[in-house]
């Protein structure tokens, strides 16, 4: 989650009473019934194909020739990459263009202990940024205490999981949601998350070793219990590597450590494949959600719920939490599109986690966690309109069946 630094005392609005709403009930049914420029550009790469650990090569990574050529084009020593050079970060060579996303599978990299070491992806926005559009934003909502999701998660929640990746600062973590693939019904390999969980924005490039773990820690085990848990208990549906990623041109151009002009475009779609064979993600998990690209206004949207794995204190990133509230408008600038904002105490690590609402009796994804204040009293997420739908459709049509 991007955090906003605010030194002024927060304004308080009407607190929403949390009840056993239709949204929660619908989510449970959904999960169990199935066994600048805001233009979006496909930041995908056909050469970002899988490479597997070579059993007879000392555990080194085997890189397909087309990907090896791509790395060489960027001045990367392929032999060093295979021997662990993927851990080295040179800002002058940090892949940043849409066509430059590369994410070869390093089998066994994301072991349970490495997952636990990953820190939340966070962003900060200054007080000036937060107050720049007071005439556009609605009054700050009252905080809503995040509630722990019931276990097992795969029976009680939408198909939410954790997104792991390597950044220049080390192993990092966000949240994500399995979404339906309109062009490949029942066999989706698509995951919705935040743009800042895949790309650093205007001053950086693509993150590395992107992996999605659906229903992470499905039984909600404690840190002590996870220390002796098996890989299947930590990742009940396995690890799913992103072989393609798409985020918005607005985020790539305008995203920053303070959210920046890219904040309203802070969303992304991953196309994933299992680390070791198997069926599609949707078939494996047994659930996927439609995405609502109608971009309803905050006044029209009704109640929303945000789900994710908050990792910054007082949370530790091991359990899934949720918040329900009625959204208001939030904008960092009068010239930028308004975002949704709800009261919620989830912290960093919940970034990219889906926001859901009930539309025509069905639970749909309507936004994702993007930014929030340093005191962790609310969250804001982008409205998903035509540009977001174009990004999604391009990913689905071009790579969905692969």
Automatic annotation (TrEMBL):
Keywords in alphabetical order: Signal
Annotated signal sequence range: 1-33
Keyword Signal included in the entry's annotation: yes
InterPro entries, per the entry: Glutamyl_endopeptidase, Peptidase_S1_PA, Peptidase_S1_PA_chymotrypsin
Region described as Disordered: 35-62, 116-146
Bias-annotated ranges (Basic and acidic residues): 38-47
Annotated protein name in UniProt: V8-like Glu-specific endopeptidase
Source species of the chain: Streptomyces capillispiralis
């Amino acid at each position: 989650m991007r955090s906003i630094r605010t030194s002024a005392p927060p304004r308080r609005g009407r607190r929403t009473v949390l009840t056993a709403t239709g949204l929660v009930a619908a989510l449970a049914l959904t999960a169990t019934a199935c066994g600048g420029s805001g233009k979006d550009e496909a930041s995908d790469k056909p050469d970002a194909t899988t490479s597997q650990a070579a059993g007879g090569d000392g555990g080194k990574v085997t890189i397909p020739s087309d990907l090896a050529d791509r790395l060489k084009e960027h001045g990367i020593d392929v032999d060093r990459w295979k021997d662990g050079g993927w851990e080295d970060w040179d800002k002058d060579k940090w892949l940043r263009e849409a066509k430059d996303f590369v994410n070869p599978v390093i089998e066994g990299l994301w072991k349970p202990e490495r997952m636990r070491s990953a820190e939340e992806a966070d962003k900060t926005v200054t007080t000036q940024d937060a107050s720049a559009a007071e005439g556009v934003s609605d009054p700050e909502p009252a905080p809503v205490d995040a509630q722990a999701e019931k276990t097992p998660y795969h029976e009680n929640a939408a198909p939410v999981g954790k997104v792991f990746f390597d950044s220049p600062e080390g192993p990092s973590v966000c949240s994500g949601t399995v979404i339906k693939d309109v062009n490949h019904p029942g066999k989706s390999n698509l995951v919705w998350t935040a743009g800042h969980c895949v790309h650093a924005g205007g001053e950086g490039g693509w993150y590395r070793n992107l992996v999605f773990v659906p229903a992470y820690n499905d039984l909600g085990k404690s840190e002590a219990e996870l220390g002796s848990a098996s890989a299947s208990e930590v990742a009940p549906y396995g690890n799913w590597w992103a072989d393609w990623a798409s985020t918005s041109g607005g985020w790539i151009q305008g995203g920053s450590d303070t959210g920046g002009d890219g904040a309203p475009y802070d969303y992304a779609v991953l196309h994933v494949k299992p680390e070791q064979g198997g069926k599609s993600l949707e078939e494996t998990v047994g659930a996927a959600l439609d995405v609502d690209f109608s971009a309803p206004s905050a006044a029209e949207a009704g109640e929303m719920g945000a789900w994710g794995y908050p990792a910054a204190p007082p949370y530790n990133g091991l359990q899934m939490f949720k918040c329900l509230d009625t959204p208001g408008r939030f904008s960092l600038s009068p010239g930028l599109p308004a975002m949704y904002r709800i009261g919620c105490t989830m912290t960093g690590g919940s970034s990219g986690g889906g926001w859901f609402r009930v539309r025509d009796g069905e639970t749909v994804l309507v936004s994702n966690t993007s930014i929030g204040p340093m005191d962790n009293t609310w969250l804001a997420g982008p409205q998903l309109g035509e540009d977001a739908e174009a990004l999604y459709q391009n990913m689905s049509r071009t790579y969905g069946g692969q």
